[in-house]
Amino acid sequence: MNPDPYRVRPDRAVQLSDWNTDDHGGLSKQEGEALLPGLQTRLADLQERLYAEGQQALLIVLQARDAGGKDGTVKKVIGAFNPNGVQISNFKVPSEEERAHDFLWRVHARAPRLGMIGVFNRSQYEDILVTRVHGLIDKQLAERRLQHIRAFESLLTDSGTRIVKFYLHISREEQKERLQARLDDPSKHWKFNPGDLEERAHWDDYTAAYEDALTTSTAAAPWYVIPADRKWFRNLLVSQILVNTLEEMNPQYPVAPFDAATLKIE
């Protein structure tokens, strides 16, 4: 499967309507689900090499609208990794302490150390999405923040961290179905936030804000627009992109500081 059509080209205007939310890559659900275990096995192997090598890090950014599938992606894709080598961070409403610093302060503190995979379930981009949609910052300040984010991601890249960013792209109709399913099932009421309905009313404003955020796609820190109406295809495509990314990083097991052939365990 070729992920290239889902990659956002650097320095180009972005229109989310260019990507179909229910794309299936020419595969059936059965075919896609059959491919996933092999990718999960490969992800686990590459992560072990990354952890053992300890010379590089991988940062995975997940962004989506409410009910877009961030948690599901963590469970079904990130779940292939050994938890010892993964750090998952979720950036919600800033605390008083966080608001007293620059907007990237809390984010930088959660960047993965070498050898680790970091997952941002929501990220630095929240501070140019929610804040802009609700009028807390204007478009000019949002653009300055995007410039700071570009510089921040460049700093991480220069320090040995590979970055890959996913926007999970669902339709308004699919979001409605998922939110309704949470209301219909008492066991899922804990996942429902009445505030999500207010955010849904700003659909077009969020579209514009996301399109601006996606312009931060670069060769070193690319954005991918992941069709997310079909959960199985979302999981498959994200897994394939992560396999490709880790293979490009090419982590290697370190050379042992001893000659194993000379050692004998009694």
From TrEMBL:
Domain of life: Bacteria
Keyword annotations of the record: Kinase, Transferase
Keyword Kinase: yes
Biological process terms in GO annotation: polyphosphate metabolic process
Protein's UniProt keywords contain Kinase: yes
Residue ranges constituting the Polyphosphate kinase-2-related domain according to the UniProt record: 27-252
UniProt-recorded Gene Ontology molecular function terms: polyphosphate kinase activity
One Pfam family in the UniProt entry: PPK2
InterPro entries: P-loop_NTPase (IPR027417), Polyphosphate_phosphotransfera (IPR016898), PPK2-rel_1 (IPR022300), PPK2-related (IPR022488)
Full protein name: Polyphosphate kinase-2-related domain-containing protein
Organism: Deinococcus phoenicis
